[in-house]
Design brief:
The chain is an alpha/beta fold. It has a single domain, classed as 3-Layer(aba) Sandwich (Cobalt-precorrin-4 Transmethylase, domain 1). The chain has 6 helices and 5 strands; from the N terminus they run E-H-E-H-E-H-H-H-E-H-E. It has a 5-stranded parallel sheet with strand order 3-2-4-1-5, with helices on both faces. Strand 2, helix 2 and strand 3 form a beta-alpha-beta unit. Helix 3 packs antiparallel against helix 4 and helix 4 crosses helix 6. The protein starts with a strand and ends with a strand.
Length: 162
C-alpha cells in the first residue's frame, strides 16, 4: 500500500488554519487517536468530535476514532506528574516523559498490529492523518504511533505544526 502518515495537533491553530492544513496535506483519512474527544473552552471548540466530524464530511475526509491508540488515564497521569515536576504546562510541553513513553509502548504499542491498522482504515486511505491535541509531535503519543507505523510498514511520516 502506498500511503503517507501525517500527524497534526490542534494547539496553535485557529479553525481556518487547521482545516486548511488538512486540505493542503491532502489528508483523505482522519484518525482521531484521543481518548476524550472534547476540548474545553471556545478557542478549540472546532476540535470537538461532533463539529469536527461534520466539517470533515464537508471536506470529504473520512473520520475514524481509534480509541485503542489513546493513552489510558493512568498514562496521562504519569505525564501530568512529569509535567508538574518540570513546571511545564501541557500546551507548552515539547517532549514526552520517559515514564510515559515506556508505559505507552508497553501497554499500547507492543501488541498493536500495524497491518491491522491498515485493514481498519481500508484500501482507499492514501494520506492518513493521526490527530491529537499537542502542538509539538514529540510532546504527543501520535509521534510514537507514527514511528511504529513508519518502522513496521516502511511508510513516510510528515508532522504538521501551526
Amino acid at each position: 500500500m502506498a500511503a503517507t502518515i501525517v500527524t497534526i495537533g490542534v494547539y496553535g491553530f485557529d479553525e481556518a488554519g487547521f482545516f486548511q492544513a488538512l486540505i493542503d496535506a491532502k489528508i483523505d483519512t482522519f484518525c482521531d487517536i484521543r481518548g476524550r474527544r472534547g476540548m474545553r473552552g471556545s478557542l478549540y471548540a472546532f476540535a470537538n468530535s461532533e463539529y469536527l466530524q461534520r466539517r470533515l464530511r464537508k471536506l470529504e475526509i473520512r473520520y475514524l476514532h481509534l480509541k485503542e491508540l489513546a493513552p489510558t488515564q493512568a498514562m496521562r497521569d504519569l505525564q501530568k506528574q512529569a509535567d508538574a515536576k518540570q513546571g511545564v504546562a501541557k500546551r507548552l510541553r515539547t517532549g514526552l516523559s520517559e515514564v510515559f513513553m515506556q508505559s505507552y509502548q508497553q501497554e499500547c504499542l507492543s501488541t498493536y498490529d500495524s497491518q491491522r491498522f491498515f485493514q481498519a482504515i481500508g484500501p482507499d486511505a492514501h494520506v492518513i492523518g493521526l490527530f491529537c491535541v499537542e502542538r509539538e509531535p514529540e510532546a504527543c503519543h501520535r509521534s510514537l504511533v507514527a514511528q511504529k507505523l513508519a518502522r513496521d510498514l516502511n511508510i513516510p511520516v510528515q508532522h504538521i505544526k501551526a
